[in-house]
Amino acid sequence: MPTETKKSDNILEQFLSEFETLVSGITEHALKNAEDEDEKAVIQSFAPSLNNQIFELNQFIREGSKKSSK
Fold it and tell me: What is the DSSP secondary structure assignment for residue 9, as one 8-state letter?
């Protein structure tokens, strides 16, 4: 689930936001460029899980960074 891109001074936050956008864009482009219906079906079935995993990973990193010392 890509988040809305916000400009932030936090480098980690910028990276995580861009990473979500990158992964989401890759799955969208893969779907657009898939020529075979089987390919499209596989991409459509796995893309939401991949995007969700990246979102959850980013949330985990955000939480960890809030708890850690500078």
Answer: S
Q: Would you tell me how many other CB atoms lie within 10 Å of the CB of residue 25?
A: 11
pLDDT digits (tens, 9 = 90+) for 14-63: 999 999 999 999 999 999 999 999 999 999 999 999 999 999 999 999 99
pTM over 0.85: no
DSSP string, 36-60: SHHHHHHHHHHHHHHHHHHHHHHHH
User: Residue 64 in 3-state DSSP?
Assistant: helix
DSSP state letter for 68: S
Residue length, the chain?
70
CA dist., res. 28 & res. 11, Å (int)? 26
CB atoms within 10 A of CB 60: 10
